[in-house]
Amino acid sequence: MSFSTLIACSQLVDHLNDPQWVTVDCRHQLSDVGYGEREYAKGHLPGAVFMHLDRDLSAAMTGRNGRHPLPDPRLLAEKLGAAGISRTTQVVVYDDDGGMYAVRLWWLLRWLGHDRVAVLDGSIRRWVQEGRALTTEVPERAAKVFEIELRDRVATAAEVEANLGKNEFVLIDARGPDRFRGENETLDPVGGHIPGARNRFFRDNLDEQGGFRAAAELRQQYLAVLAGTEPDQTIMYCGSGVTACHNLLAMEIAGLPGARLYAGSWSEWCSDPSRPVAR
């Protein structure tokens, strides 16, 4: 059995010593880029390796390509291989914030052609709440070759700009409603959203316990947001292309696959003053 969206702690625990499984710790904080590594050193899931959002899961910023540009697929494949991940590996990704950062690696692996990747539902918080052990031991994994089969999952700024006024596809913004309105913007120099976009805050995908809502509930909510638009005519974005992946995962759980990611997102869009802004 393989997992391609979510996995429960009770399902993962049976595979901690399975050589065909690799668990990746993706903890991060935008305000403290060393946070994830420190927390990993304090304690992580047994057998988990660590990948950093900025160094491993993003390319370098130029000032015009957003705050978390997509990594070079070949470099990412090398890092995945070094972590013991091949195309036959079941990957499980987690963080400590409801999947906010782990979804980035979930989406990147899907982009590279790898479907056997799942987010730990409830994150490390649920793992600890259920009384399961952590470790400080750093695993040694034999390197493997990760073969790329790149998929067309990415929308460009040019495509988004060309769609203005045409509405051939729908944009959905995963940021909080206040930032969508252009209020309380602390991460990017300009507040607002791409004209015509709809808002679906990624945290609304989660229930009160910090896990993803049931598939039927997510489906009902996303069908309301889509309002008749097909999923494959939908493009997700956020501030920097990370939490938009949370919405992409939620749509997969809901049985509504096919949406693409505008990876540069708002941070790329607003870096060009000639692009229009809505508030």
Give a description of the structure.
This protein is of the alpha/beta class and about 280 residues long. The protein has two domains: about 120 residues, Rhodanese-like domain (Oxidized Rhodanese, domain 1, 3-Layer(aba) Sandwich), CATH 3.40.250; about 120 residues, Rhodanese-like domain (Oxidized Rhodanese, domain 1), CATH 3.40.250. About 30% of the residues lie in helices and about 10% in strands. The protein has a five-stranded parallel sheet with strand order 1-5-4-2-3, with helices on both faces. Strands 6-10-9-7-8 form a five-stranded parallel sheet. α4 links the parallel β4 and β5. The chain is globular and about 55 Å long.
Task: Summarize this structure briefly.
By secondary structure, the protein is of the alpha/beta class.
Class of the largest domain in CATH? Alpha Beta
Q: Count helical runs.
A: 10
Mean pLDDT, all residues: 97
CATH superfamily of the largest domain, by name, is Rhodanese-like domain
What is the structural class?
A: alpha/beta
Fraction of residues in H or I helices: 25-40%
Order of helices and strands: EHEHEHEHEHEHEHEHEHEH
End-to-end distance, in Å?
A: 46 Å
Strand content: 5-15%
Give the overall shape, derived from the CA principal axes: globular
| Number of discrete domains | 2
CATH architecture classification name of the largest domain: 3-Layer(aba) Sandwich
CATH topology (level 3) name of the largest domain: Oxidized Rhodanese, domain 1
Uncertain runs with pLDDT below 50, 5 residues or more?
none
Strand order of the largest sheet: 1-5-4-2-3
Major sheet attributes: 5 strands, parallel
